[in-house]
Amino acid sequence: MRILGVASASAALTLGAAGNALAGDIDEFSAEAKCDGGKGVITVTDADPAGVPATVTVYLENNGADVKKVGEQEVKGSREGTTISFAENWKPDAEYRVHVKATGYVDEDIKPNLVTPATACKKKEKEEPPASTPPAATPPATATPSATATPSASPSKPAEETGAPAPAPSESESTTPAGNPPAPSTGDSNLAETGADSNTGLIAGIAAVLVAVGGGAVFFGTRRRGAKNDN
């Protein structure tokens, strides 16, 4: 039993030491310089499956000395890896020191130091607004013909002079309707041909009245003479 107890204690110590070594291994941390939308960032990934909290500090280096402190963050690792980011507009071939400290486990830098890529991040070009559609061209206004027609420079010649045949008369002009004799034209009468004027009817009426009056006078005169002879 004593031997068994000693063996179990030894195994527990061994496993505990192995777990502590696994939790505090600096090889579980990695750093990388990247571009995010035209801006530079430095990312640190913690792949500690035990999830021991660790503090990560990033420094800009120049000739082996710290120039500035970029930032400091706390991270809890995972088997899949937990990543944190530091905003830094890094320059090409710049050097950064990344220090990791987990109390009781690890307190050292990630080796080797981080060196940025030889090409800087390109700034995202501004999107130009779409060109506005030009307005449709207005068609030129057409000239409106005048209400009155402009007379031609030279009057048209009659059909006899031009030699063109005269248009044939229509039916209404060439044919006189049956039963309606054509009315004589104004001013054309038989009286005009004989030299008489339009008072002939009036003179004839007056003459008839005078004849009737003369005949009556003769009749009454004859009766008066007959009466005297009888006396």
UniProtKB/TrEMBL annotation:
Residues 186-197 have a biased composition (Polar residues). Residues 1-23 form the signal peptide. This is Alpha-ketoglutarate decarboxylase. It comes from the Bacteria. Residues 118-197 are annotated as: Disordered. Residues 139-178 have a biased composition (Low complexity). The chain crosses the membrane at residues 201-221. InterPro entries: LPXTG_anchor. Residues 191-231 form the Gram-positive cocci surface proteins LPxTG domain. Keywords: Cell wall, Membrane, Peptidoglycan-anchor, Secreted, Signal, Transmembrane, Transmembrane helix.
